[in-house]
Every structure is written in structure tokens, then in C-alpha cells.
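Researcher: Good morning. I'm working through a list of sequences from a screen, and I'd like to move beyond sequence-only analysis. For each chain I'm collecting a predicted structure so we can compare shapes side by side. This is the next one on the list. No need for commentary yet; just the structure.
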Amino acid sequence: MPIPTLVTERLILRGVTEADAESYERHFVDYEVIRHLSADVPWPYPADGVRNFIREAILPAQGHDRWVWGLHRKDADGMIGQIDLRRHGTRKNRGFWLGRAFWGRGYMTEAVSRVNDFAFDELGFERLLFANAVGNEASRKIKLKTGARFIGVAPGTFVDAAYTQQEMWELTKEQWLAWRQHRRLG
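Model: Good morning. C-alpha cells for this chain:
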């Protein structure tokens, strides 16, 4: 089942397909991007690993209980990052990555906000759980900027073995609606 295309001020979030493999690989297969991710992600990343991941992990679940969008700038071609929403996540319902060349521009905060709207308004989520490596300040800031509440620390394993703990976050529908209202009034 195809997933809806979501639009923000600067981005188009479109369901990931095999056609995205080249730009996905160009921005994802970078240790500085991957190091913050779960140790489930292999490093060094295997040749043709992106295409296989799209084919075997994304496409079969796409639009059922998992939604995976590629982030595309409106003013350029190619995927620059990904955001993933899962109904039944293990300790987390959402994950993301962004190509290093696009860090620090607010793209992921913009994408996260739109996906949160979709999760709560269209899919009926009542609560979302998130996690990030303790020390991944960029991911932490996005959670803070989008209204999530820090709930604790738990053990975690990441590609970068120096990360051994993860921060746990929660965002309820009520918190999100209040945050969104405050943003509109601010």
C-alpha cells in the first residue's frame, strides 16, 4: 500500500522506493551519519546494502504498520535523508537520519513535525516513544524542539561502540497538540 506524500515548507516526504537507492546510499553510507544508529546497522556498510535494505526491509512493510519517507528538498533532486514511523517499535516509534551536507539547517525538525502531525492526526497514535544515543546532541535537540519529554536512560548498542546508553523520550498526542498550538501562536 503506498504511503501518502507529505509536504512541508521546504521538503517533500515521499515513500522510499528502489529508485531512491543511489541518493540514499550517497548520503547514508557515511560513518558520521551511521555511527549514531543502532548496532543493527552494519558497519562497514555492505556493497548494495541500501538497495537490499529497501527491497527486503522497507518495501514489504511500507504503509502497513511502518511508514518510511525519503526527504527530498523542493528545490533539488534526490533523497537527503529518511524518517521512519512504526506502530509497534521496540522502545521507539520513530527514527531518522540526514545526510551530513544537510545538518544544521532545520530540515529534520521540519520533517519530524510533519510526521508527528500524520501520526497523531491521521493514524490515531496516542503516544510516540523515541530513543537516541546519549551524546547524540543533534537528535536530542530535535526531540526538545518538537515537544518530546525526556523519560530516562537505558542501555543501548550503537554502530559507534563508544555509545552504550540511550535516552528515552515520550510524546503524547496531548503534548503534541499543545506544542503545535503554542508554535502557531508564537
